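Researcher: Quick one. two chains, 956 residues in total.
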Amino acid sequence: MSAVNSTAKRNMTVQKKKTFILCVMSVIALLALCVRVGYLMIGRSEYYTEQAQELHERERDIKAARGRIIDATGTVLADNKTVCTISVIRSQIKEPEKVIAVLSKELGLSEEYVKKQVEKRSSRERIKSNVDKETGDKIRNLDLAGVKVDEDYKRYYPYGELASKVLGFTGGDNQGIIGLEVNYEKYLTGTKGKILTLTDARGIEIDGMGERRREPIAGSDLHVSIDINIQKYATQLAKQAYETKQAKGVSIIVMNVNNGEILAMTDVPEFDLNEPFVLTAEFAGQEETQDTFNQMWRNGCINDTYEPGSTFKIITAAAGLESGAVSLNDNFSCPGFIIVDDRRIRCHKAGGHGAEDFTHAVMNSCNPVFITVGLRIGTQRYYEYFTKFGLRQKTGIDLPGEAATIMHQPDKIGEVELATISFGQSFQITPIRLMATVSGLINGGKVVTPHFGVKAVNEGNATIEEFVYPVSDEIVSEDTTQKLRYVLEQVVENGGGKNGYVEGFRVGGKTATSQTLPRGTGRYIASFLGFAPANDPKIMALAIIDTPQGTYYGGQIAAPVVRQLFENILPYLEERGYY
Amino acid sequence: MAKKQVQIRRSRHNMDYVLLTVVMFLIVFGLLMIYSTSSYESGDLYLKKQAQSTVIGILGLIFMIKLPYKYLQKFDFLAVVVSAVLLLLVLTPLGMERNHARRWIDLKFISFQPAEVAKIGVIVYLASIIQKLESVGKNIIRTPKGIAIVMVPPTIIAALIYVITKNLSSAIIVMGIAVAMLFVAVPDYKWFVAAGGGVLAVAAAVVMYVANADAATASFRLGRVRAWLDPESYSTDKAFQTLQALYAIGSGGIWGKGLGQSMQKMGFLPEAQNDMIFSIICEELGLFGAMAIILLFIILIWSCMVIANKTVDRFGSLLVVGVMAHYAIQVILNIAVVTNTIPNTGITLPFISYGGTATLFLLAEIGIVLNVSKSCK
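Model:
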């Protein structure tokens, strides 16, 4: 028994020691965990705080104001309007009935809809956006708990339809959809600001925790070469022609010959930039498909190609003069037709023009003479000039969707094809392509890049960028330019373009009457390309009337349009120091 | 200082009021934190339930202080049998499922977790059986038969807990308590050192294996190990809770966000009042708050050790050692899990985490310890 007792006593001593060891080991473990906690809460604090912050904060964007589009006179063509977005935060609403009643009344929404939105189990539910500022302010002043009124910007075009196909418009996120709005997106779009609010795991904002803001940066203003007065007048003339001639469409482009700045571009019928998704009268009744809208927004001046017809004789004349294949005094005889291979190609004047020199052939727009000149130049050389004049390339205009030239392959051009090309048929180019090339022929030999964008100016009125555009190498000699200016002035003074004559100004130009494709439908495109002053061209205008009813000759219906335009804008341009 | 006070009191055969004060502080603090962590999601629901459990627990504590602890000596095998029967009852219609885990017995007027009963049952069993073996003959406890008598019943209980309730952590705690009590009862060291070394080696081997294994082939439990090694890669599933806890701890910083200011409790860290409550303590009270809580647990464990070693009675002493081991294991594992020091296994923080049965028995165990402390020299 005593042995048992002594063993028990010894064991008790052992137990005390071991209990102590056990306790000390536990304490060591806990102290080690203290170190671990310390490491997490000091060493890793920054990292985990950041991660947690990211988890807890919900971002709300603050839209940045989009840059405006401003014309050459300083008039704002595209602006921003303050609108409001009304939303509700379910968890903060105190009087749901009142909120539903007020919002449905002020916003003109059905009570059921508002009730459904208010009662949705979400952190923040948008009730209506694009609410005008007045209504937004009114709702804000009612100070209803849980109702949030956020100010926002909406694109606004003060002149509605004006230059609609050039300016373009923006979509729901204020991003450009067509036109300059797309092309200069990166300058116009600003940098979004952010409101960071603390929310719980479900995204419900936590009261009284404040918010962090990062202010938005407004986009840069785009200064364009459009002159609103010229644009307005060009549009008015185009509309007039569109109505009186019951045409399919009328385009007018006005461009600076020497630097490619476009002062006006209209393609009637235009559409209202403030309502781009409402079909215009021309499209009324059609299905509201993307395709229909694309048709409505299409800019014929750059998105579509056509057979230029007689205006293209300027190019044949330039190639002939430059290559020496013809001189102004060369004599020709026009019997009213010409035989090429086995084809008989008629002149537009049934009896023929008889004996005429080249100057008069241009004035008469005589097809057989131009065919003769074209054949003298020869296929290969003609194709070389065609290429050199930039006609196979796009102009590089600062609008999206420029159409490419449709031209024969060089090995497919026979005599007949060459003959038709010589007077502007059997290939297609865009109107802007024709203008760019002709500008190079008459301005002394350099093809310019047609464009609208002049410079981008930021909020602080500092110029971010002045846009520069490429100019081609010399395509014709000064001599050829001088001769072209002379004959084209003769066309207006005494030839087929006399309806383009403007009292007191020297105007040069060329008319065209081309058949639309496919042929034989009796539909025509009448056009006139004019420039002034004829001896030192500054300004060029092209008017194209697509499918006019009644008289369809370019000299009779398109030339007067340019004349009226020039009558008004030339004095104005003089005033503005353009000359 | 605590020690001095303890000595003065003990000489008058008073119970250990320092221990009682620490526990009361932890209990009140626990209620506060339960309200703080759960009120955003559930209002005062959890606070009310926990307050009820605490009241019952305090009654249990008083009962255990009044009941002469030597009375427990009679429950050696009975304690184990009762624990085992209760565990088996989980399989009967009396068993109840909560949060996808079948761990409760529902007696209509009260429901509880048998695993928590088993922990105290094992402590009582081991304390009395070791004491009895000792009084029977010399060193029987060191023979294979003696070790079997001591260790087999707790092993069976742990196995039942694991198999029936799928509660790995409670099984680990039961085994840990048993090993700790055996460790203090026998004079040997080498077996324990060898066993400890073996466990560490196996753990290291598993970690190595998992770290190099293909993610697709790792099983569920091994997946936990992977999530432990690289929580950010498992942020949406296995390591979700751990990572959220780390966000809470890390974002607390030195000073904390202030009581009630936790962001993580707002639905980011699910069931923040349960296993992961320590992370919210870190977030709200900062490093100092966290250290203060750990320090209170150190005082708690240390007080138990002092009481165990001042007790002449072997049985009483062993009871206190068992309770001490229980607290120590649970606190260490909980904080280690919350800080991602070891792979995640659901262990609650004694006196602070939400849980009715646990609170009742933890307080009852404190009652036993205080009871023993009355008879100290």
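Chain A has three domains: 2-43, 59-224, 228-272+301-575.
Researcher: Thanks, that's what I needed.
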